[in-house]
Amino acid sequence: MNGCRLRAAACVMMAALRTDDGNMSGTSSIRAAVAADAPALAGLLGQLGYPTDTTQAAARLARLLADPQAAVFVACRDGPVVGLATVQAHVALNRDAPAVQLTLLVVADGLRGSGIGRALVAAAEDWTRRHGAGRLVVTTASHRTGAHAFYERLGYASTGRRYARGL
What we know:
- The protein has four helices and seven strands, in the order βββααβββαβα.
- It is an alpha+beta fold.
- It has one domain (4-153): 3-Layer(aba) Sandwich (Aminopeptidase).
- A seven-stranded mixed sheet has the order 1-2-3-4-5-6-7, with helices on both faces.
- A hairpin with an 8-residue loop joins β5 (81-90) and β6.
């Protein structure tokens, strides 16, 4: 990484990232998402298993961008958006400092393993620190074993289970 510049409360990182075969390929940047990213975000959500059209992605993105306790980061590789991460801060009675949850992380098919996911997590961690949070929490579905291994390589530990119920 060549460092990080804070601009308009968004962390922007530039990095030459390695491809799976170890070759340097392309320049990637991490920036705050903007409304015009909605079509690319819809495609990435679909790759993650959450089919989303552009209108839905635009509406969801607008809600997150309006929330001062949330951030949406995108990774761009030689121009196009190829990765996405979202974070949301919350306070709770059981901790003094707020916590931040990494609520979504996806890198485009064919670019996984190139360092883009790691750069997005670094941006999320930086945002977490700047918002005074004591920890970044990640949840991932039990069937995403590759994601589990990825987070463990980054130093995250499994701390429990997650349960959900549709209402």
